[in-house]
C-alpha cells in the first residue's frame, strides 16, 4: 500500500516536471490500439515520434490519421474515449451536384464499391461517364458526367465535379466559372476557369478531395507525364492557320529543373532511399527526351543538403552522369528536427537570380523553370513560402503584372507538388503550385511506388519526335513491344517469305529488298505490328532500292548479290504511336541527333563517329522466337578488323570469285565468328531486321540484316556463331539518299523525318 502511494506521488511529480518542460517524458501505447487496423511509430515512444495508423484497403483511420508524441509525454491529438479510433469505410464525394439529370441511386452518402448511373433530362445530352464506381482511394472512376444542350455558347458546359459547387452559368468568351468544395472537402486543381476564344476552358477540371483521398500511382504517372511532357519536348505543334494544317516548330531556350525532397522526421525514415531512387528514375526518364535540362537537387529538413548545384551546369562542370553518381551515393547522417520549406524556395529563387545575371534580361526570357517538391508540408520553421513563390513568379514573369504578359510568360514556370505522407498539410501546400495546364498537385500516401510511377510516365508520351524511346525491361516476358516498340513482322504470302522490319516513321517499315521476289505485289505483303488498333497492317506499296539487283554479279562469280538490299513498305494508315509502337531512330536525321544529344548543327559524320567509332562495335538484332522475340548480341568488325571478317564470305554457297570484296562491298557491316567474343548468328527469318545500338533510353538503327556465309538456322532462334560463319548487314549510313528520297519527302500532312544537310 505504502509503495503504491509512493509510486503515484512520483508519477504525478514527474508529470508536473514534464509539463514544465524540464524533463522529457516518453509517450505510452496504452489505449492506442485501433479496431480493424494497426499503427506504426516513426521513432519509438520518444518525443516527436509519429504514430501512423494503417487500415486495410477501402478503409481509412478515423477520427485521426496520425498522432505526434509531445515533449510532455502526451499524444497530440489526444485519444478521446467518446470517439474511439477506428477504421472507417472510404466515402466518395457527393455526385448529386450534377445539373439537368438524375443520379441513380440517390443516396445521402456513397461508399467504396457503390455504383452510380447517370441520365439526362430530355433535351440534354450526356458527356462523360454514364456509370461510375466509388474507388478505394476516395474518387469516382471515369469522368464527370455533364448534361448539356447546345446553347450556342463559345465553350462547352464545364460541368460540376462531385462534391463541388459552381458559380457562373454563361459560357461565352472571357466568362469565368468558379468552384468551391462542399463540407469538409478541399479543392485540388483550378478553382477558376475562363472560357477562351478557341472554345477551351483555361486550366484543368478541379476535384474535391477528402483527407483520405489519394491519387493512385497510375493517375500520378498519367497526369504528371502529360503535364511535364510539354516542358520536355523541343518540338511543339502549332496550328498553321493559313495552310490549315499542323506544323512543328522548335522551342527555344534552356530548361532548368529544381527538385527538393523533404527528409525531415515527419517523413518516415525508409522514405529517404525511396525518394532518392525515385528522383534518380525521374531524371533518367527525363534524359530520354530531346532536351538536356540543368538540375538543382536538394534534400531538406531544417537544413538544406544540396546534392547538385545548378550553377555547375552553367559552368559546364556537371553532367547527367555526374548528377546520377552524386545522387546514388548521397547519404545523410544525423538530421535535425524541424522543416523549413521556405528556405528551399529562397535558394531556388537565388539560383534563378544568378541565372538571370548570367544570361541577361533578354537571355533569361528563354529560360524555362520547373520546380518539383516532395513533401508533406509540415513545415515548422521559416514561415510560409507563399511570398517567395510570388517573388519567383515575378522574376519569371519579368516584373510585369499585366494579364497579357502573365499569360505569355506562364509556360515558363511550373511548380509541381507531390504531397506525400499520412498527414498532409494541403491548405499550405496546394497554393504553392504554379502552372498553366495540367495537374500540378499530387496526393500520395507514401513514396514506395514512386519509382514505378516515374517509370510509367513515358507510357503516355505520344510525342512523334521521340524515335527509339523504349523501356529497359519488361516484367512480362511475352510483352516485348515495350522494349522493342519498333519491331515489325513482314510476311510475303506467295513465297511465304518471313522477314523482320522496323518502323521508321508512323507510316513506313524498313526491311530487306530480298524479302520480295519478282512479281510480288502489295496485296501479297502483310505487316504485323500490334499498336492496339489491330495486329495486321494493310500495305499500300513497297519500294526497293533502285540499285538492288540480285543477279548483277552472276558473271563475276556471285550467284546472289545483296548490295543495296533495302526496301521500304508504306502502310495504308499511320501506326498509332504509344509505348508499344514507336519508330526507331535512323541515321542522318535530326531526330537521331536529338537522341544522341548532339547540340547545334550536327552532321551525318558526327553521328557515324558516335555510333560506329570503335574497331569493334557492339550491336544487337532480333530474332523471332515463338510468340516473342530474342535478342542477339554481335560485334561489328570495323577498321583493321573488317578484312579478316569479310573474307569468310568466300565460303558461302554460290560464290566462286576469289575476291571477297566483289560480294561484300563497302556498304556492309560484318559480324559473327568467335573473336573478340562468340557472336550470335542470323537465321533466315531475321532478314530485314534492325541492327541497332541503344543510347540511354533511345534505340538507333545502324544497319539491317541482309545475308550470311552459312545457313545455320531457319525461321529464328538465338543461335551462336561458329568459327567460320559471318553475317553481312546493310550499313544504313551508305543508303541515305534512298531513305531520304522517300522518308524526307514532305508529302504527308505533317513533316516526316528531317534529314541533315550533310
Ligand atoms: C524513453 O525511451 C527511451 C528508449 O526508447 C529511453 O532510452 C529513455 O530513457 C526514455 N525516457 C524516459 C524519460 O523514460
Ligand atoms: C453502398 O456501400 C455500402 C457499404 O459497402 C453498402 O452497405 C450499401 O449497400 C451500398 N449501397 C448500394 C446501393 O450498393
Ligand atoms: C528561336 O531563336 C532563333 C534564333 O535565336 C529565332 O530566330 C527564332 O525566332 C526563335 N523562335 C522562337 C519560337 O522564339
Ligand atoms: C523588378 O522589381 C523589383 C522589386 O520590385 C526590382 O528590384 C527590380 O529592379 C525590378 N526589375 C526590373 C527588370 O524591372
Ligand atoms: C508588360 O507586358 C505587356 C505585354 O507584354 C506590355 O505591353 C507592357 O508594356 C509591359 N509593361 C511593362 C511595365 O513592362
Ligand atoms: C541486273 O544485272 C544484270 C547483269 O548486269 C543485268 O543484265 C540486268 O538487266 C539487271 N537487272 C535490272 C533489273 O537492272
TrEMBL record:
Reported cofactor(s): Mg(2+); Mn(2+)
GO biological process: complement activation; innate immune response; proteolysis; response to bacterium
One GO MF term attached to the UniProt entry: serine-type endopeptidase activity
Entry keyword set: Disulfide bond, Glycoprotein, Hydrolase, Immunity, Innate immunity, Protease, Repeat, Secreted, Serine protease, Signal, Sushi
Subcellular location: Cell surface; Secreted
Source domain of life: Eukaryota
InterPro entries reported in the protein's UniProt record: Compl_C2_B (IPR011360), Peptidase_S1_PA (IPR009003), Peptidase_S1_PA_chymotrypsin (IPR043504), Peptidase_S1A (IPR001314), Sushi/SCR/CCP_sf (IPR035976), Sushi_SCR_CCP_dom (IPR000436), Trypsin_dom (IPR001254), TRYPSIN_HIS (IPR018114)
Segments forming domain Peptidase S1: 466-744
Record domain VWFA: where: 256-457
SUPFAM superfamilies xrefs: Complement control module/SCR domain, Trypsin-like serine proteases, vWA-like
Residues spanning the signal sequence: 1-25
Domain Sushi as annotated: residue spans: 23-89, 90-149, 153-210
UniProt-annotated catalytic positions: 514 (charge relay system), 565 (charge relay system), 687 (charge relay system)
Disulfide bonds: 120-147, 181-208
Pfam families: Sushi, Trypsin, VWA
A GO cellular component entry from the record: cell surface
UniProt protein name: C3/C5 convertase
Amino acid at each position: 500500500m505504502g509503495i503504491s502511494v509512493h509510486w503515484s506521488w512520483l508519477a504525478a511529480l514527474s508529470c508536473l516536471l514534464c509539463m514544465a518542460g524540464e524533463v522529457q517524458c516518453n509517450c505510452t501505447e496504452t489505449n492506442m490500439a485501433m479496431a480493424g487496423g494497426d499503427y506504426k511509430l516513426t521513432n519509438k515512444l520518444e518525443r516527436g515520434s509519429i504514430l501512423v495508423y494503417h487500415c486495410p484497403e477501402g478503409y481509412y483511420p478515423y477520427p485521426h490519421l496520425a498522432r505526434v508524441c509531445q515533449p510532455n509525454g502526451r499524444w497530440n491529438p489526444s485519444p478521446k474515449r467518446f470517439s474511439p479510433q477506428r477504421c472507417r469505410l472510404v466515402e466518395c464525394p457527393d455526385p448529386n451536384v450534377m445539373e439537368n439529370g438524375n443520379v441513380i441511386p440517390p443516396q445521402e452518402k456513397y461508399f467504396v464499391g457503390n455504383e452510380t448511373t447517370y441520365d439526362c433530362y430530355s433535351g440534354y445530352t450526356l458527356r462523360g461517364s454514364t456509370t461510375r464506381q466509388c474507388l478505394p482511394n476516395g474518387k469516382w472512376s471515369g469522368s464527370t458526367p455533364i448534361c448539356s444542350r447546345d446553347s450556342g455558347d463559345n465553350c462547352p458546359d464545364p460541368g460540376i465535379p462531385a462534391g463541388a459547387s459552381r458559380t457562373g452559368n454563361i459560357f461565352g468568351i472571357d466568362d469565368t466559372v468558379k468552384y468551391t468544395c462542399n463540407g469538409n472537402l478541399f479543392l485540388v486543381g483550378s478553382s477558376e476557369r475562363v472560357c477562351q476564344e478557341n472554345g477551351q476552358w483555361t486550366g484543368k477540371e478541379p476535384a474535391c478531395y477528402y483527407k483520405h483521398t489519394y491519387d493512385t500511382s497510375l493517375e500520378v504517372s498519367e497526369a504528371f507525364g502529360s503535364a511535364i511532357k510539354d516542358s520536355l519536348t523541343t518540338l511543339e505543334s502549332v496550328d498553321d492557320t493559313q495552310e490549315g494544317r499542323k506544323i512543328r516548330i522548335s522551342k527555344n531556350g534552356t530548361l532548368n529543373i529544381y527538385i527538393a525532397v523533404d527528409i525531415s522526421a515527419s517523413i518516415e525514415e525508409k522514405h529517404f532511399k525511396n525518394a532518392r531512387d525515385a528522383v534518380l528514375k525521374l531524371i533518367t526518364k527525363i534524359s530520354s527526351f530531346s532536351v538536356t535540362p540543368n538540375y538543382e537537387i536538394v534534400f531538406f529538413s531544417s537544413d538544406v543538403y544540396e546534392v547538385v548545384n545548378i550553377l555547375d551546369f552553367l559552368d559546364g562542370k556537371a553532367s547527367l552522369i555526374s548528377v546520377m553518381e552524386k545522387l546514388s551515393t548521397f547519404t545523410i547522417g544525423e538530421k535535425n528536427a524541424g522543416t523549413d520549406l521556405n528556405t528551399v524556395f529562397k535558394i531556388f529563387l537565388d539560383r534563378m537570380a544568378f541565372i538571370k545575371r548570367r544570361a541577361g534580361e533578354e537571355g533569361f526570357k528563354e529560360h524555362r523553370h520547373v520546380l518539383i517538391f516532395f513533401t508533406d508540408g509540415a513545415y515548422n520553421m521559416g514561415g510560409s513560402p507563399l511570398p517567395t513563390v510570388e517573388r519567383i513568379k515575378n522574376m519569371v514573369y519579368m516584373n510585369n503584372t499585366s494579364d497579357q504578359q502573365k499569360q505569355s510568360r506562364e509556360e515558363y514556370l511550373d511548380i509541381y507538388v507531390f504531397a506525400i505522407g499520412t498527414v498532409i498539410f494541403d491548405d499550405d501546400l496546394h497554393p504553392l503550385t504554379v502552372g498553366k495546364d495540367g495537374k500540378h498537385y499530387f496526393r500520395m500516401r507514401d513514396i514506395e511506388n514512386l519509382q514505378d510511377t516515374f517509370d510509367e510516365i513515358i507510357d503516355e508520351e505520344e510525342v512523334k519526335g521521340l524515335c527509339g524511346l523504349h523501356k529497359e525491361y519488361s516484367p512480362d516476358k511475352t510483352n516485348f513491344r515495350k522494349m522493342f516498340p519498333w519491331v515489325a513482322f513482314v510476311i510475303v504470302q506467295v513465297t511465304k517469305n518471313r522477314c523482320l522490319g522496323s518502323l521508321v516513321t508512323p507510316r513506313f517499315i524498313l526491311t530487306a529488298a530480298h524479302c520480295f521476289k519478282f512479281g510480288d505485289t502489295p496485296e501479297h505483303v502483310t505487316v504485323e505490328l500490334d499498336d492496339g488498333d489491330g495486329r495486321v497492317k494493310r500495305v499500300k506499296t513497297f519500294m526497293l532500292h533502285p540499285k538492288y539487283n540480285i543477279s548483277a554479279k552472276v558473271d563475276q562469280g556471285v550467284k546472289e548479290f545483296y548490295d543495296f538490299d533495302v526496301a521500304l513498305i508504306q502502310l495504308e494508315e499511320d501506326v498509332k504511336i504509344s509505348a508499344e509502337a514507336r519508330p526507331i531512330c535512323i541515321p542522318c536525321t535530326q531526330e537521331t541527333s536529338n537522341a544522341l544529344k548532339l547540340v547545334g548543327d550536327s552532321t551525318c559524320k558526327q553521328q557515324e563517329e558516335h555510333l560506329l567509332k570503335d574497331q569493334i562495335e557492339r550491336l544487337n538484332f532480333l530474332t523471332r522466337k515463338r510468340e516473342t522475340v530474342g535478342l542477339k548480341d554481335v560485334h561489328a568488325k570495323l577498321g583493321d578488323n573488317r578484312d579478316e571478317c569479310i573474307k569468310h564470305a568466300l565460303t558461302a554457297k554460290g560464290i566462286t570469285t576469289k575476291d571477297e570484296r566483289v560480294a561484300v562491298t563497302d556498304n556492309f557491316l560484318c559480324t559473327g565468328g568467335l573473336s573478340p567474343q562468340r557472336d550470335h548468328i542470323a537465321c533466315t527469318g531475321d532478314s530485314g531486321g534492325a541492327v541497332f545500338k541503344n543510347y540511354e533510353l533511345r534505340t538507333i538503327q545502324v544497319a539491317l540484316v541482309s545475308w550470311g556465309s552459312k545457313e545455320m538456322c531457319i525461321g529464328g532462334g538465338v543461335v551462336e556463331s561458329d568459327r567460320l560463319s559471318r553475317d553481312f548487314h546493310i550499313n544504313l549510313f551508305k543508303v541515305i539518299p534512298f531513305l531520304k528520297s522517300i522518308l524526307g519527302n514532305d508529302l504527308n500532312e505533317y513533316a516526316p523525318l528531317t534529314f541533315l544537310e550533310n
